[in-house]
Amino acid sequence: MIYDKDADLEKLRGKTVAIIGYGSQGHAHALNLRDSGVDVVVGLRPESSSRAEAEREGLRVLPVADAAREGDVVMILIPDERQAEVWEREIREGIAPGNLLLFAHGFSIHYGQIEPSSDVDVGMVAPKGPGHLVRRQFQEGKGVPGLAAVHQDATGQARELVLAYAKGIGCTRAGVIETTFREETETDLFGEQAVLCGGLTELVRAGFETLVKAGYDPRLAYFECLHELKLIVDLMYEGGITGMRHSISNTAEYGDLTRGKRVIGEPSRRAMKEILAEIQSGEFAREWIAENRAGGENFQRLREEGKRHQIEQVGRELRAMMPWIANRG
Ligand code: NAD
Ligand code: MG
Ligand code: MG
Ligand code: MG
Ligand code: MG
Ligand code: MG
C-alpha cells in the first residue's frame, strides 16, 4: 500500500496537468488537484455543457487539443469508447516526448486502442469510487482508495509522478495499490459483467419474475428482490459477508447458507469462467469496439428492452411513495 508519506506532490511542481473531460471523474480530479496546489487546465469540446460549470469553479478551460498541448501531464477522462477517436483527432499531437499520459481505466491501452509513442510515460490512477465520492471525501480531508500503474516509463520518473497525481486527488490518504494495466482492466470488466452489474441485475430480475409468475403481488416482489438489496449491500460494505450475516435474522442466515449455492451453482461459475476468458482474450473488447463503430444500435436496443421490464414500472410507482429516495428513474 502506498500512503501520503510515500508520494511527493513536489514532483508536480512546475508542471501543468490537463484534465480531458469534466464528467464524473474529470470534475473530481480537476478540483482536487487544484486544491492540492497543482496547475490544472481542463480540456473540453467547445459546445460542452460542462464548460460553464468548470469556469464557475475558477478552472481554466481550453479546447481539448490546446489543453493536451499545454499539459505536461494529460489525464484522459472521457468515456472509454470515445477515447481512441479523440486521441487520434485532438490529443496525440499535443503529447510531447517526456510528457505523462494518464488514464483512470486501462481499456484503451490494454486493448491497443491507443498506442502512445515510446518516448512518453504512460500511467494509470484509478480511484475505486465514483467521481462525486472522490471529490466529497477529499473536501472532508479524507480520500478514496485507488489503483496506480505504469505502462511505459520513458523518463525514469513515471512511477513517482503517477503517485504524486494519486496524492493530489486524495487517493494516498486512503491507500493506493500498485497494479498493472492488464490486471486493472481485466478485473474491472469481470467485476462489472459477472457480479456488480450483469450478474446482479439478472439475479434481481430472476427473483422478481419467479415471485410474480407464481402469483405474488409485484410490489412485494419489488421490495423483496430489489429494494432491500441496499440494506444488505450496506451491511456487506461495512462488515463483509460475516458482518451482514450477523445482522440478519437466524432464519435469513440459515436460508442464505443452505440455498445460495443452489442459485449460483456450477453453471454460473462456468459462465463466469467463460466471461473471464472472453475478457482475457480480447473478445469482449473487440465486440464492444465493433458495436460502437457500427453506431451502437444493438446497445441502444438492449437498453430500451431493459427499460420496458415490469420491474421498472413497479419500481417507479413505489419509489414515488418513498420521498427519502433520490428518485432517478
Ligand atoms: P463521464 O461519462 O462521467 O464523463 C465523460 C466526460 O467526457 C464528459 O465531460 C463529456 O462531456 C466528455 N466527452 C464525451 N465525449 C467527448 C468527446 N468526444 N470529446 C471530448 N470530451 C468528451 O465519464 P467517467 O465515468 O468520468 O469516466 C471517465 C474515465 O474514468 C473512464 O476511463 C472510466 O472508465 C474511468 N473511471 C470511471 C469511474 C466512475 O465511477 N465513473 C471510476 C473509475 C474510473
Ligand atoms: Mg503536452
Ligand atoms: Mg470498476
Ligand atoms: Mg468499469
Ligand atoms: Mg425480508
Ligand atoms: Mg444473525
TrEMBL record:
- What GO molecular-function term can you cite, just one? magnesium ion binding
General function of this protein: Involved in the biosynthesis of branched-chain amino acids (BCAA). Catalyzes an alkyl-migration followed by a ketol-acid reduction of (S)-2-acetolactate (S2AL) to yield (R)-2,3-dihydroxy-isovalerate. In the isomerase reaction, S2AL is rearranged via a Mg-dependent methyl migration to produce 3-hydroxy-3-methyl-2-ketobutyrate (HMKB). In the reductase reaction, this 2-ketoacid undergoes a metal-dependent reduction by NADPH to yield (R)-2,3-dihydroxy-isovalerate.
Q: Name one GO cellular component term.
A: cytosol
Lineage, opening ranks? Bacteria, Bacillati, Actinomycetota, Thermoleophilia, Thermoleophilales
Organism of provenance = Thermoleophilum album
Q: Which PANTHER family match?
A: KETOL-ACID REDUCTOISOMERASE, MITOCHONDRIAL (PTHR21371:SF1)
- What is a biological process (GO) this protein takes part in? L-valine biosynthetic process
Write down what this protein is called.
Ketol-acid reductoisomerase (NADP(+))
Reaction catalysis annotation: (2R,3R)-2,3-dihydroxy-3-methylpentanoate + NADP(+) = (S)-2-ethyl-2-hydroxy-3-oxobutanoate + NADPH + H(+); (2R)-2,3-dihydroxy-3-methylbutanoate + NADP(+) = (2S)-2-acetolactate + NADPH + H(+)
The family database entries (NCBIfam families) matched by this protein are listed as: ilvC, PRK05479.1, PRK13403.1
Q: Sorted alphabetically, which keywords does the UniProt record give?
A: Amino-acid biosynthesis, Branched-chain amino acid biosynthesis, Isomerase, Magnesium, Metal-binding, NADP, Oxidoreductase
Q: In which pathway does it act?
A: Amino-acid biosynthesis; L-valine biosynthesis; L-valine from pyruvate: step 2/4; Amino-acid biosynthesis; L-isoleucine biosynthesis; L-isoleucine from 2-oxobutanoate: step 2/4
**Where on this chain does Mg(2+) 2 bind?**
D188, E224, E228
Residues binding NADP(+), per UniProt: Y22, G23, S24, Q25, R45, S48, S50, G131
Which residues of the sequence carry a binding annotation for Mg(2+) 1? D188, E192
Key word Isomerase present: yes
Q: Residue limits of the KARI C-terminal knotted domain?
A: 180-325
